[in-house]
Amino acid sequence: MRRRFPVKIRQEQIPILKTNILIQKGGRNSMRHDFSSSCGMPEDIQTQCCIAGGGPAGIMLGYLLARAGVDVVVLEKHADFFRDFRGDTIHPSTMEVLYELGILDAFLRVPHQALYELYVRLNGEHVKVVDFSHLPVHCQYIALMPQWDFLSFLAEAGQKFPSFHLYKNAEVTGLIHEGAQVRGVRARTPGGEQAIYTPLTVGADGRDSVVRLLAGLEVIESGVPIDVLWLRIPKGKEIKEQTLGYFKEGKTMVLIDRDEYYQCGYIIAKGAYEEIRARGLESFRADVLSLAPFLRGYVDAINSWDDIKLLTVQINHLSRWYTDGLLCIGDAAHAMSPAGGVGINLAIQDAVAAANILSGALKKGNVTTVLLKKVQQRREMPARVIQRIQEFIHDKFINAQYEPGPGGNKLTSAFVWVLRHIPILQRIPARVVGMGLRPEHVR
Ligand SMILES: Cc1cc2nc3c(=O)[nH]c(=O)nc-3n(C[C@H](O)[C@H](O)[C@H](O)COP(=O)(O)OP(=O)(O)OC[C@H]3O[C@@H](n4cnc5c(N)ncnc54)[C@H](O)[C@@H]3O)c2cc1C
Q: Of all atoms in ligand 1, which is nearest to the CA of residue 265?
């Protein structure tokens, strides 16, 4: 039976991760090492699976493998999760996975906002384009939660499994080979270089994956015509606007409500940053205001280009996600654009599929390339189809707006018109954004 959860649950904050917990010393053949939120690997270690990257794909896979009784080491190069450029959307299908894992209620106690519907402003007009209320899941909405809170929640939940080991400040810099097989990684840590020996290395290190580069996996790039200017715009409590997308006169912007400020993604044509900068901050503020006039007064807080990060958008995919002893998932296998805000969901779904397919073999120590190939076969279609949709959005809805003349917004207008006048069609983007294709279930 479907169950609706409260729109906003603002109870106690999930406790902050413990830091500097000493880990037990273990030799090369030992699997006895405890969870640590900062690095501190005393010496080289051996584990059943080593994951490079503590983003959504890596932490979720670490959690699932540890839950299945696999000894797993997750290495995250940063000292914390406080990266603000990875998006904040937790999708209905991700919350369904959390439900299947029995941790949904705890997750919903972490402060978040629930978006049951998604609205855009097209030439100032407020239009509903997505309605999640028909999805066959427990949470028929997108939860907006800062990603560092989500990752901290998962890492904290992973702590209850003795075989879950997360090391921060541990950057994978090399692969260990035995003949043609990958047999582990080398990581830079505050204590020096460490070796982690393992029969399976997973590259979950994002769109600039070092693992896939070191493994020599072929990356196929799709041209992307846009980049994003990423900045914070403070806001007062009186501003309740929850619209995600703004389109007007060739300009496009996304606003994610983070309570005390909006995380703003201002879309620009690729390579246009210098030109926008040359026009000056006053002109940029005016552009933002023309899309969201309710920010008058607040945009003045943007007073330096140092406050604005240029994020390069990429779409690419690996022709082969694996090699002997190594697998890539998430953005490392298929870098997603922010269009539609679906990359986190795909990363989580990859992790679930990988855990379903590999847990048993990892415990027995007989992971083969046939199994690794199965992971790719299971997840490649959903990722590639969504990437194609993102390419279409870039090309027809966003890039077209930079074309001279009034035609720019025509397709966006037509699309929005159809969704507004035939509301049942709002279920289609809800399905694609909220669930993705081929939703995974925890086994
Ligand atoms: C501007 C922008 C906005 C976005 N907004 C959204 C959104 O709202 N919703 C959405 O669903 N998706 C969004 N996306 C896409 C989304 O960010 C990615 O698809 C998603 O984060 C992929 O998850 P991941 O775990 O595969 O990789 P990542 O989230 O990139 O995580 C990789 C992790 O690996 C770590 N790492 C990297 N190299 C190493 C190394 N050598 N050793 C150890 N650790 C390493 C990194 O520090 C990072 O923590 C956005 C993307 C961009 C560019």
A: 1
Is it the case that residue 398 has pLDDT exceeding 70?
Answer: no
DSSP code, position 321 = -
71 CB near ligand 1 (under 6 Å): no
Q: Is the CB of 343 under 6 A from ligand 1?
A: yes
The 3-state DSSP class for residue 353 equals helix
Inform me whether the pLDDT recorded for 339 exceeds 50: yes
Domain with CATH 3.50.50.60 in the chain: 1-116+141-222+316-402
Check whether 28 has a pLDDT greater than 60. Answer: no
Q: Is the pLDDT of residue 288 over 80?
A: yes
Contact (CB, 8 A) for 103 and 157: yes
Cβ(340) – ligand 1 distance below 6 Å? no
- What dihedral do alpha carbons 173, 178, 181, 184 form, nearest 10°? -40
Measured from the CB, is residue 45 less than 6 Å from ligand 1?
no
CATH topology of domain 1-116+141-222+316-402: FAD/NAD(P)-binding domain (3.50.50)
DSSP class of residue 62?
H
Q: How confident is the model at residue 251 (pLDDT cuts 50, 70, 90)?
A: confident
Which ligand 1 atom minimizes the distance to the CA of 332?
26
pLDDT value, residue 14: 27
What confidence score (pLDDT) does residue 13 get? 29
The DSSP code sequence of 81-133 is S---SS--EE-HHHHHHHHHHT-HHHHHTS--EEESEEEEEETTEEEEEEEGG
Whole-prediction pTM: 0.87
Ligand 1 near 276 CB (within 6 A):
no
Task: Report the distance separating Cα 356 and Cα 337, nearest Å.
Answer: 26
Q: Are 81 and 96 in contact (CB under 8 A)?
A: no
Expressed in angstroms and rounded, the spacing between residue 278 Cα and the centre of ligand 1 is: 30
pLDDT bucket at 269, cuts 50 / 70 / 90:
confident
Find the 308 Cα to ligand 1 centroid distance in Å: 19
User: Which residue has better confidence, 46 or 12?
Assistant: 46
What is the identity of the amino acid at 259? D
